[in-house]
Amino acid sequence: MSTLGSARKRDNKAAYLFLLPWFAGLVLITAGPVTASLVLGFTDYNLIQPPEFNGLENITRMLGDQRLHHALGVTFKYVLISVPLQLAAALGLAMLLDRGMRGLAFYRSAFYLPSLLGSSVAIAVLWRQIFGAEGLFNQLLNLFGITGRGWISDPDTALSTLIVLNVWTFGAPMVIFLAGLRQIPVMYYEAAQVDGASRWLQFRRITVPLLSPIIFFNLVLQIIHAFQSFTQAFVVSGGTGGPSDSTMFYTLYLYQRGFHNFDMGYASALAWLLLIIIAAFTAINFWAAKKWVFYDD
Amino acid sequence: MHNGLSRRSLLSLGAGAAAASALAACGGGGGDAGGEISKDAVKLRFTWWGSDARHKRTQQAIDMFTKKYPNITVSGEFKEWNGYWDSLATTVAANDAPDIIQMDELYLASYAERGALLDLGTATKHLKVDGIDPAALDTGKVDGKQYAVPTGVAAYSIVANTTLLEQYKIPVPDDSTWTWDDLKRIGLEVSKASGGKVTGVQSWGFDAGGVNIWARQAGATLYDASGKVSIPPAVLAGYWQYLLDLAKQGIAPAPSVTVERAGASLDQSGTATNTSAFGTWWNTQLTSLSAASGQQLKLLKLPTNGQAAAAESPYYKPSMFWSVSSRSKHPAEAALFVDFLLNTTEAGEVLLTDRGVPSNSTVRSAITGKLADTDKAAAEYLAALKVGAAPRVTPNGASGIEAILKRHTEEVLFERQTPQAAAESFIKELQTEIDAA
């Protein structure tokens, strides 16, 4: 008995040891700044001089900050449009690939690739080239006799190009969907076919319910991810959130307040507001999940 | 800078290590700007923005300096304008600022008033400023302290592509008499003659220089002496109405093209790519532009509105400054390096007029004979210009003026706001930023 206990202790020690690098990283790189930003959220801090406590001023300021409200609007629009589109694309492709085509491994990798690259600077730069006034996309349109415009430099279309970029990175949820689809026993479909159920009915009555935990997981993850989008808007708009604030994501506004306007106290408060917003969305998701997510066990 | 700063707020909140180390870091860089030059190995970091041509020249000057002082190494960090300020703010905040910083008039007060820059008055042992015109030197002062030394002066101008004008058989306008209406008319001729391949004018509305001049031509100023925004809304609305007219009448490119170019580097501008016949630039950018364009470019005085105030509306802008970080570990060596760039003929002969016509008069006269045609033209333009008093230094808090300006220009060009509404909104927002700083 005692040998077993000491072995377990030893195992625990080893586990903690292995966890140490991650834990040190969490404390030093994440927890420290997170705590600092909470404190800074209640100060006036211009980056160079020490912060000065200013109570709830940053919070009252948010209420009257019209550009903040605008940035929230842009971000909500981005999240609410791009996430459903992205998940639909991911699920559609996953089902297609699940039908056991030849070269599956290749297609899976090919479709997965964009999600590895999607939030990189290089892709954002590429996006600028593709959707610029003389970019590839317009050259393509030209072939069909359509005169395009500067998609990224026109405030009516700039956000759409970023939504397209996000949808394009459907690879990560797709791979998860693919794994989920594999879990669904084939016998359900066989039974349904025997009963004469159409493909659509099979999808609605078998695939969706059995896949719902996976859909839910992807939904939560992608919403959080989309709220935090920064690189794409930053690079594509040259750090301005323009033209005329049409791509002013919340994170970008936060960054501008902090680093362009030397307004780090307010920016820190904004960071915590974003945390609260994301937490609220996640909570709503979990609450709503009770109504539509089906757990088999 | 640590004098009189209160540590109470954060420490009393028990904010812990992060804040405390930031405060400790404020306690000076550890070096003495008036001390002896070290005999040991010293590493300096030097940052600037600019075009390819500038990077090459600057690197050449660095090499000459390090050859002269073999124990000092200088590593250059250069960026284009848009990325430069993000990166500078970040490095200063992270207590990792480069030792020598190329500074602009827009940001000087913001950095100086917050204590990020060394008072160069403490570094006169190694950095001499007596060769510099006192009026120019004053532009680098904030609250009476010399936080920056101007590298040279520049003036706002129109760069005209005479190769294109000749090709379309349009005479070069007489810039001693022309008006904004003339620019519109001639610009339209170019747009028509080229069949849309070249536009007459490259739209502006993204830099503070253009607004300054427009205000001064109307007898107003952008900021008053106390640092309040003082441009009348009607004057500013006229400015945007003009830009809107250019875009709508096809004299300037479509708004989305204009916006795209405004975000790109100098080398991708309409002037540099020979796709616009007229563009507004600082006169000293002529050399970089000519190198990129490969065609004949000529400096013209800005058109006027015909009012009396327009006669003295041009001004000498300190084209940029040299500053030293207040947290530099080697302020004496940094000052020595700035002195080398500023006051030695050998550096002047390499840098020429890229950072403005040199502010040091000895260097200026020494290099005149060596100037290339474009540099010579820039110097002659400056000498012939009739200027008024320089505008007030951009107030602390207003360093973001160009971002605010750009956004409102976009609002106007895409017709989301009328020029009048944009003018009122711009003034209000800029004033709020100044008040908050």
From TrEMBL, chain A:
Predominant subcellular localization, coarse grouping = membrane
Q: Name one GO cellular component term.
A: plasma membrane
Record-annotated membrane-spanning stretches: 78-97, 109-130, 158-181, 208-227, 267-288
Q: One GO BP annotation here?
A: transmembrane transport
Q: Does the keyword Transmembrane helix apply?
A: yes
Keyword field: Cell membrane, Membrane, Sugar transport, Transmembrane, Transmembrane helix, Transport
Domain ABC transmembrane type-1: from-to ranges: 72-285
Q: Identify the SUPFAM superfamilies for this entry.
A: MetI-like
Q: Does the keyword Transmembrane helix apply?
A: yes
Give its localization.
Answer: Cell membrane
Q: Which family is annotated?
A: Belongs to the binding-protein-dependent transport system permease family.
Spell out the protein name for this chain.
Answer: Multiple sugar transport system permease protein
- Natural source organism: Actinoplanes campanulatus
From TrEMBL, chain B:
Signal peptide interval = 1-24
Which keywords, in A-to-Z order, does the entry hold?
Signal, Sugar transport, Transport
Under the heading Pfam families, the entry gives: SBP_bac_1
Q: Give a yes or no for keyword Signal in this entry.
A: yes
Transport among keywords: yes
* InterPro entries from the UniProt entry: Bact_solute-bd_prot1 (IPR050490), SBP (IPR006059), TAT_signal (IPR006311)
This protein is called: Multiple sugar transport system substrate-binding protein
Origin species, per record, is Actinoplanes campanulatus
